[in-house]
Write a structure and sequence with these properties.
Blueprint (H helix, E strand, L loop, with lengths): L2 H13 L6 H38 L8 H51 L1
Helix pairs in contact: 2-3
Length: 119
């Protein structure tokens, strides 16, 4: 077994021009349909978790001056963070559904072409 030859072929395959197939196009369309929802969900989830954590820190006197007002503000900010985390998934599902509806025709057409070709 010539490992040098296998290694050289794998390097050459990385640099060779690849033909785009219908399966690759289908995968790209699927990712494109879901990308906006994923970006929103991660961003909104991270921000909501940070808001929740800030509220917790304020209410437990980790940050702030430890007064009654900072405690109340911490609870309010924490509840806002909890609401943000709670509504993140339903909003994600709606955005994902809208994106999938937008690209449904192209995806179904490509999937039918691929399945008919493989028969």
């Amino acid at each position: 077994m010539n490992t040098d030859k296998i290694y050289a072929e794998s390097i050459a395959n990385e640099y060779s021009v690849k033909k785009t197939s219908k399966v690759v196009a289908l995968k790209k369309l699927d990712r494109k349909a879901k990308r906006g929802a994923n970006i929103f969900a991660y961003t909104f989830g991270i921000v909501s978790a940070l808001v929740l954590g800030t509220g917790m820190c304020l209410s437990m006197d980790v940050i702030g001056n430890g007064t009654q007002m900072s405690f109340i503000c911490g609870i309010i900010i924490g509840v806002i963070g909890i609401v943000g985390v709670a509504v993140n998934y339903p909003i994600y599902k709606k955005i994902k559904k809208r994106g999938m509806e937008k690209y449904a025709g192209d995806i179904i057409r490509l999937a039918n072409e691929i399945s008919e070709r493989s028969l």
